[in-house]
Amino acid sequence: MICAAIFGFGNIGSGVLDVIENNQHEIRKTLPEGLYVKYILDIRDFSGTPYADRVVSDIDIILNDPEIKVVCETMGGKEPAFTFSRKALEKGISVCTSNKELVEAYGPQLLKIAKENGCSYLFEASVGGGIPLIAPLNNCLRQDRILYIAGILNGTTNYILDRMESEGVDYEPVLKDAMNLGYAERNPEADIGGHDTGRKISILSSLMTGKWVRYENMYVEGISKITQRDFQYASAHGYSVRLLGVSRRDGEALSVMTAPFLLPQVHPLHAARGVFNAVLVNGNKVDNLLFSGRGAGKLPTGSAVVSDMITAATDPTSSHHINWSDEVVIPEPQDECENRFFVKVSAGSREKAEQVFNGQIDEIWSLEEIPDEFAFTTVAMTESDFAKKAAMIEMIGRIRIF
Ligand SMILES: NC(=O)c1ccc[n+]([C@@H]2O[C@H](COP(=O)([O-])OP(=O)(O)OC[C@H]3O[C@@H](n4cnc5c(N)ncnc54)[C@H](OP(=O)(O)O)[C@@H]3O)[C@@H](O)[C@H]2O)c1
After folding, report:
1. Which residue among 12, 126, 127 has the greatest number of ligand 1 atoms within 8 angstroms of its CB, and so is best to mutate?
2. What is the mean pLDDT of residues 349-374?
3. pLDDT in tens, 301-340
4. Is residue 78 annotated as a catalytic residue, yes or no?
């Protein structure tokens, strides 16, 4: 038996145990000796549960047990997750995680510690939940120059926007439903503010460039300003609204952002409905690839963590080739990025808007059923040019066009 431990027995940690215990037959196809969870580290009391005899609150019991070859870190947050992961790696124990916050903030450092100690740090479940995405980027696509990654990376916001689109309901009541259904956190800011998507596109951008693309250096905008009227305009013109993380390389220049975009309804990413995620990867030789599936949830995410645990148990050096250095790369300033915009002003401001955006209006999108507004799309323009012009009109709202 390969012995393992779970750090943090919450939603995902209990999913990891479920996958290991109930899919042992499948796991033994790769690890004939089997994978066994010997310890569960958590701060809660699990007495009276079937796994109570495996629960410990002292990490040293795990670190000092020479039988432990691999752990999963499913605690979340930066501390003590970082310290616990570092200590395990320093003991030569591989760590597999679903914790995007930790991976974004300490990925290169933990990969280096793993390499120095002959073990692995793997993080398939940190982006896209159950969708195999990190391993394909690190393995199957090593020979390609990745030019472009764009994705719906947060299930909560996708659920909210999808319901606004399909049921014609407003943002606030759908957010409440998402919270009641347990999709959104009690404090949903990480999801709706775009921070969760931002951290995930930061990790993907780092793997794309081999350098460290920090979340704090990128532009992040959430979905709280999206209204039902935006969906009316969008659907009348064959579009939807989705929160996207987008990362592009042009030569040495990199642009990365998270924001709501008008997405054509025929675009392959639009097929990800409800809590599903979808990610489009473009490589210079392989062309477009689409990854989609359940981006969160105990069993899909637990499955991705266990996949890493099997990989690390089979080959403790498996993360050593991951191309992610600690050299920080700063994306292009947002002001210099070019985008097309959908813009709404009051009907009375039409003349002024046409004057200010003279030559840069692409299509008029006004609708008879919204007579108090004038709506239009722009041609591609820099964010700074757009911001200067938008400041000259009384803009009600704007959304970038994908
Ligand atoms: N939920 C998802 O669908 C999903 C999907 C992909 C990735 N993730 C990521 O996976 C990670 C875990 O998420 P989750 O939803 O499973 O969170 P969760 O349900 O809150 O589980 C975390 C567990 O770790 C325990 N814990 C906290 N501090 C600890 C400590 N010092 N020592 C030992 N145990 C400790 C928590 O106990 P207490 O409850 O007592 O604090 C809780 O049982 C997060 O980074 C999250 O972003 C989640």
Report:
1. 12
2. 98
3. 999 999 999 999 999 999 999 999 999 999 999 999 999 9
4. no
Cis upstream peptide for 80 (omega within 30°): yes
Q: Which amino acid is at 104?
A: E
Residue 183's pLDDT band, with cuts at 50, 70 and 90, is confident
Per the CB < 8 A criterion, the answer to whether 340 and 399 are in contact is no
In the chain, what are the domains? 2-129+299-314 (3.40.50.720), 135-294 (3.30.360.10), 337-401 (3.30.70.1150)
Report how far ligand 1's centroid is from the alpha carbon of 121 (Å): 18
Contacts for 225 with CB less than 8 Å, ≥ 6 apart? 397
pLDDT over threshold 80, residue 130:
yes
Sign of CA dihedral 331, 202, 218, 391: positive
Q: Taking the model in full, what pTM does it have?
A: 0.97
Average pLDDT over residues 186-213: 95
Number of the ligand 1 atom closest to the C-alpha atom of 101: 45
Q: Which two tokens stand for residue 31?
A: 């690890």
Q: Where on the phi/psi map is residue 293: left (φ > 0), alpha (ψ -120 to 50), or beta?
A: left
- Going from the Cα of 336 to the center of ligand 1, the distance in angstroms, rounded, reads 38
What's the CA-to-centroid distance between 201 and ligand 1, angstroms? 21
The residues facing 381 across adjacent strands are 339
Which residue in the block uniquely carries the two structure tokens 């796994």?
Answer: 51
Closest ligand 1 atom to the C-alpha of 44? 40
Which amino acids bring their CB within 6 angstroms of ligand 1?
Answer: 8-13, 41-44, 74-76, 80, 98-101, 125, 129, 296-297, 301
Tokens in use for 90?
Answer: 């320093």
Residue 21: which of 34, 32, 39 has the closest Cα? Answer: 34
The active-site residue, picked from 100, 200, 211, 344, is 200
Looking at residue 110, its pLDDT comes to 98
Amino acid found at 33: E
| Percent of residues, the chain, with pLDDT higher than 70 | 100
Question: What confidence tens digit (pLDDT) does each residue in 207-226 have?
Answer: 999 999 999 999 999 999 99
Q: Give dist(CA 372, CA 347) in Å, integer.
A: 5
SS3 260: strand
Omega within 30 of 0 (cis) for the link into 371: no
